[in-house]
Amino acid sequence: MLLQALHSAPAGALALVDGRRTISYGALPALIECEIAWLREGGAERHAVLADNGVPWALADLALHVGEMLSVPLPGSFTPAQLEHALDDAGIDALLTDDEARASDLLAGWRADGSSPVSGLRRFRRQLDPAMRPVAPAGTRKITYTSGSTANPKGVCLAGPALEAIAESVAGATRELAIERHLCILPLATLLENVAGLYAPLLRGATCVVPPSSVTGMSYGGLDAARLLGTLSREQPNSLILVPELLQVLVVAAERGSPPPSALQFVAVGGARVSRELLARADAAGIPVYEGYGLSECASVVSLNTPAARRAGTVGRPLPHVRVRVDGSGQVHVAGNTMLGYLGDPPRAPHDPIATGDLGVFDADGYLQLHGRMGNRFITGFGRNVSPEWVECEISQRLGGRPVLVHGESRPYVVALVGASAHEAPDAAVDAAIVAANAALPNYAQVRRWGRAPGPFTPDDGTLTANGRLRRQEIHSRHGALLDDLYRVELAS
Q: Which terminus of the chain is less hemmed in, N or C, by CB atoms within 10 Å?
């Protein structure tokens, strides 16, 4: 489907642009075929891509997809330990990268194997015993690793047709807008931007603008809002995909006298819950925002508000490629376009629904409202999954086992609340513990601010269970104002 769409687009129309290189629809199919040939000449069975946004990433990914080769996009936000885990877990025998310096720390025992004459990405190879390679479910074409709700993220195995089905649904949902120019802000290694921000625009014959993070300000060390806004003004996209924290940047800028690009017609926002207040401010600022919902296990987008069907406070109606129901406990289940399974686990029955762990309800008109998560995992305002127990353990063990609660649901960063103790650790000791913990965590899970609870967390006062587990709801109920205060200073700036 995708390759056919590339051939059908006007030959002179621009397909890929990154500020350094421009590729037309007329040239793109032949370049993809040349990249496929180069990849196959290497003899590798499984490829990973570790590269910044840009035409090289897009070319390599399109070649792997069209050539039906198994690929693993590696998020640049992963720690070295997480990258090494993904390479080994997926049985990768070829790494494509534009960052040889960073890759070199991971590649002991690998050999350099030239650069692509098409994408320009550098290839590194290693020999793997086939008997040691993890078995992926039949039909796996892409393994996307979760953003790491635990130290070792899991590989979600996806079929090529599942990815194209979503791209077709997203393209169809926005077809009436005649979008001609999409700007990729999120990393292309993020499944959402990969499928809805690259494949879907190409199916429509639109231009995909894929500048590197140095241009968009989207480095993994933080966000440069001025660069982001400058890129938006310069590129004048018709569509964007944002997480809530990036939408906040656009809203604040508009409220301060810098309106959104006049060409902007469609801003999809997802990855974490968006507050009604922020959506209302976006509407007032003239930002055409449409909230959606998806998960990696369903190959990304599940539901989406569209120009033809939009209801604030919901994540829209399910798209045509899936079937969604809510069970008696309120949990959302998705069927029809789901993963083949987690790498290393037994394959799933193809028609079995995914129990998402999300709580929701359908309104009378079929719009899906989400009400939180069944487990403790939260999603930051940048769309990153974080298991609080993981972060809490890293800090607590450096504070002599003192209970610590972390928070970050739909927030720009993670904060910590330290229970009081008869033997208080000085602020410097807590600071040092958090610095040391952060060094072991990816940036999206690192604690930026912390505070002290007015009292200890104990079973006696109901903030701990009898076996020492945090009663999170109780702590949030008592100390929600303290947690809010940890964000108030920066949010007001």
A: C
Span 321-346, pLDDT tens digits: 999 999 998 899 999 999 999 998 98
3-state secondary structure of 371: strand
- For residues 131 and 331, the answer to whether their CB atoms sit within 8 Å is no
Question: What pLDDT sits at residue 397?
Answer: 74
Handedness of CA 236, 196, 65, 161 (dihedral sign): negative
Domain-embedded: residue 381 = no
Q: Are 401 and 437 in the same domain?
A: yes
Helix 427-439 vs helix 388-396: crossing angle, to nearest 10: 130
- Could you tell me the pTM of the whole model? 0.84
Residues 300 and 146: beta-carbon distance below 8 Å:
no
- pLDDT above 50: residue 363: yes
Residue position matching structure tokens 């505070």: 451
- C-alpha torsion sign, points 142, 149, 54, 232: positive
365: buried, middle or exposed (CB in 10 Å: 19+, 13-18, 0-12)?
exposed
Alpha-helical (H) ranges within 422-470 are: 427-439
As a whole number, the mean pLDDT across the chain is 91
Residue found under tokens 């604030």: 312
Within a domain: 382: no
Cα torsion through 12, 65, 167, 27, rounded to 10: 0
Q: Identify whether the C-beta of residue 309 lies closer than 8 Å to the C-beta of residue 303.
A: no
Alpha carbon distance 117, 105 (integer Å): 25
Q: Of 373, 403, 431, which closes a domain?
A: 373
Which residues, in sequence order, are CB contacts of 209 under 8 Å at separation 6+?
Answer: 17, 18, 181, 182, 183, 184, 235, 237
Do 322 and 437 sit in the same domain of this protein? Answer: no
User: Which CATH number is 457's domain given?
Assistant: 3.30.300.30
Q: Average pLDDT, stretch 429-434? A: 94
302 and 410 fall within a common domain = no
Report d(CA 94, CA 27) in Å as an integer.
Answer: 26
pLDDT category at 493 given cuts 50, 70, 90 is: very low
